[in-house]
Amino acid sequence: MAEKRNIFLIGPMGAGKSTIGRQLAQTLGMEFLDSDSVIEERAGADIDWIFDVEGEAGFRKREERILNELTQNHGIVLSTGGGSILSKDNRNVLSARGIVIYLETTVDKQFERTQRDKKRPLLQTEDPRKVLEELAKIRNPLYEEIADITIHTDEQSAKVVANQIIDMMDNLVA
């Protein structure tokens, strides 16, 4: 890759966007950013607190502003929130400003990876698996719509997935 294009990681919670993103950025010598972390840093509060106070709509407005800003950087690996693709504006910005990588995973793997995580407001419910299934029905087609590359992450290490992404990006550019 002669030029370092922006790489945007999309996918559901528990797909490995942050872990794989850090590995990918390190391997490529690029800056890693996590949109959820930037939102928390700027708000001075956790995402679950933002959801409690502002609701999901308030959080999504913050997310839209942050994604618009962060995607204007050059040479970054950006991990996005699982629901960021719900906004058409976000989908357009991600598609236009970088290579979009969809990290695909099964609901079973998501459930396994997130079941002990208390910092995911949408999963603080009686039946988190049902929530994951409902989110997948709505969001998976949107991930697929804007993805330049799709990689299944269930049984692979972050390093293996990062190397696959690099190989596929080289093929995309070639």
Automatic annotation (TrEMBL):
<comment type="pathway">
    <text>Metabolic intermediate biosynthesis; chorismate biosynthesis; chorismate from D-erythrose 4-phosphate and phosphoenolpyruvate: step 5/7.</text>
</comment>
<dbReference type="GO" id="GO:0009423">
    <property type="term" value="P:chorismate biosynthetic process"/>
</dbReference>
<dbReference type="GO" id="GO:0004765">
    <property type="term" value="F:shikimate kinase activity"/>
</dbReference>
<protein>
    <recommendedName>
        <fullName>Shikimate kinase</fullName>
        <ecNumber>2.7.1.71</ecNumber>
    </recommendedName>
</protein>
<dbReference type="GO" id="GO:0009073">
    <property type="term" value="P:aromatic amino acid family biosynthetic process"/>
</dbReference>
<keyword id="KW-0808">Transferase</keyword>
<feature type="binding site">
    <location>
        <position position="18"/>
    </location>
    <ligand>
        <name>Mg(2+)</name>
    </ligand>
</feature>
<comment type="similarity">
    <text>Belongs to the shikimate kinase family.</text>
</comment>
<keyword id="KW-0418">Kinase</keyword>
<feature type="binding site">
    <location>
        <begin position="14"/>
        <end position="19"/>
    </location>
    <ligand>
        <name>ATP</name>
    </ligand>
</feature>
<dbReference type="GO" id="GO:0008652">
    <property type="term" value="P:amino acid biosynthetic process"/>
</dbReference>
<feature type="binding site">
    <location>
        <position position="82"/>
    </location>
    <ligand>
        <name>substrate</name>
    </ligand>
</feature>
<feature type="binding site">
    <location>
        <position position="139"/>
    </location>
    <ligand>
        <name>substrate</name>
    </ligand>
</feature>
<feature type="binding site">
    <location>
        <position position="36"/>
    </location>
    <ligand>
        <name>substrate</name>
    </ligand>
</feature>
<keyword id="KW-0067">ATP-binding</keyword>
<comment type="subunit">
    <text>Monomer.</text>
</comment>
<dbReference type="InterPro" id="IPR000623">
    <property type="entry name" value="Shikimate_kinase/TSH1"/>
</dbReference>
<keyword id="KW-0028">Amino-acid biosynthesis</keyword>
<dbReference type="GO" id="GO:0005524">
    <property type="term" value="F:ATP binding"/>
</dbReference>
<dbReference type="GO" id="GO:0000287">
    <property type="term" value="F:magnesium ion binding"/>
</dbReference>
<keyword id="KW-0963">Cytoplasm</keyword>
<dbReference type="GO" id="GO:0005829">
    <property type="term" value="C:cytosol"/>
</dbReference>
<dbReference type="InterPro" id="IPR027417">
    <property type="entry name" value="P-loop_NTPase"/>
</dbReference>
<keyword id="KW-0547">Nucleotide-binding</keyword>
<keyword id="KW-0460">Magnesium</keyword>
<feature type="binding site">
    <location>
        <position position="156"/>
    </location>
    <ligand>
        <name>ATP</name>
    </ligand>
</feature>
<dbReference type="InterPro" id="IPR023000">
    <property type="entry name" value="Shikimate_kinase_CS"/>
</dbReference>
<comment type="function">
    <text>Catalyzes the specific phosphorylation of the 3-hydroxyl group of shikimic acid using ATP as a cosubstrate.</text>
</comment>
<dbReference type="InterPro" id="IPR031322">
    <property type="entry name" value="Shikimate/glucono_kinase"/>
</dbReference>
<feature type="binding site">
    <location>
        <position position="60"/>
    </location>
    <ligand>
        <name>substrate</name>
    </ligand>
</feature>
<keyword id="KW-0057">Aromatic amino acid biosynthesis</keyword>
<feature type="binding site">
    <location>
        <position position="120"/>
    </location>
    <ligand>
        <name>ATP</name>
    </ligand>
</feature>
<dbReference type="Pfam" id="PF01202">
    <property type="entry name" value="SKI"/>
</dbReference>
<keyword id="KW-0479">Metal-binding</keyword>
